[in-house]
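Attaching the record inline, Q. Sequence:
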Amino acid sequence: MMRTIIFLWGTLVLTSLHVEANEISGFYLETRTCQVYTGPCFANGESGLCGRDAIMAWSIEEGKQGDVDLAGLHVIVVVRSSDTLGFEGINGAGKVKSIILVDERANASQRQQLIDFAKKNSGRAGENVRRIDSIDIQMSLKTLELTGELLAGDVIKLRTRKAGKGDCICSNETAYYPPLAKVEHFAPGVTIEGEFKGRGLGTTWSTPGDRSAYMATFVY
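Structure, as predicted:
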């Protein structure tokens, strides 16, 4: 079966994403503790000081891994690094550790496949996993309005919206740091509400109102 996902950001070109039967596809949300939609001066001011933390979340719309159907399930990787998650993403951020949060609705086979999926698609963050928990995950992305929401128990709360002209400070803003995960189509956004209060990384954080989010589609 082939499906078409429409992804639109403001007046940007309308893009179609064709999904084959043997692929895993869905939506992706990300936020960091530094600005990703910003100008060079602001980014340079945060480099080495901020951006050591990130949330990477996948909502699988359809697809199988290892012959296990993962449609409708979610998985999250929370990252803590020793340096800013910048141009080189996780690969250039020094020492990295992570935790994985797995959709509690997954059965045993699905849970293992979601863990493998998260490790594979989070790069070096998947190599040093300190904790894996099953948790109630609610995630949505409205691709036309470009608003996203992610709730994971009382551990993660994230609400995002698309970035617009009113979010420009120096009129030189771009998607300065690329998304941490491989994605098909993406748009930078503002983290209306973003917090992590979990265990395993030795830190908690909150970044409301920052230009620190990405909303995207993925096909693997």
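Residues 23-219 form one domain. Confidence is low (pLDDT under 50) at residues 1-17.

More tomorrow.
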